[in-house]
Amino acid sequence: MNSRSEKLQAFGRLLDIMDTLRAECPWDKKQTLESLRHLTIEETYELADAIEENDLQEIKKELGDLMLHMVFYSKIGSEKGAFDVADVLNAVCDKLIHRHPHIYGDVEAATEEEVKANWEAIKLKEKGTQSVLQGVPRGLPALVKAIRIGDKARGAGFDWDKPQDVWGKIKEELGEFESAQKSGNQQEIESELGDVLFSIVNFARLSNLDPELALERTNKKFIYRFTYMEKKAHEQGKSLNKMTLPEMELLWNEAKSKSED
Description:
Layout: H1 4-24, H2 26-30, H3 33-53, H4 56-79, H5 85-98, H6 101-104, H7 112-127, H8 142-155, H9 164-183, H10 186-206, H11 211-235, H12 245-259
Helix pairs in contact: 1-4, 3-4, 8-10, 9-10, 11-12
């Protein structure tokens, strides 16, 4: 691993390259905070994919891309006279110290839950907000947002004690969903479906499971099995939309056995 001085030198090299690109590259000169936004979101998802694949070399690459974006935003901020990269780094250092009084102060927090509760209480005071839920970004995907809402509520002491406690709520919501389906009211059905999903997310959260990751792995599993079916159907001179459900089920089970090998 590189020494501290080598790490600082590498960071300084990135800053120098950004200065050069911003001054000389036509594309880099045109970029704004707004134009970089969707690219940063894309890079974040690429990092998430690399983590899910446990590809350390790809994680390194995607972390570099994200770090580049952070330096890029800081460069634009300095051009506007608002902040530079030193301001950004000092601000996050100050925040970490302030929000860890059990490390840098005289507050006691022996458990993870106590640390989280302190963090949320300090954050509320800093921002002058009235609700811990104001810290949940509005633009998060709904599934991820549901996890963060549950985390925030737990930090305020409003949560189930253990995953098993959520089962009753899931069953209750499933019953209400079934009743809504019988009513035929589409708005009510959608509302009850949301309640079912929210309850399942809470079960996953309390079970230390990532529902986003679980669903993505199921997506990949389905894609593998479905494309396997398409390939095998093509080899038989057929297309799926011309096959019967029993025929497709045979191929599906064959794909399933292959994926479980």
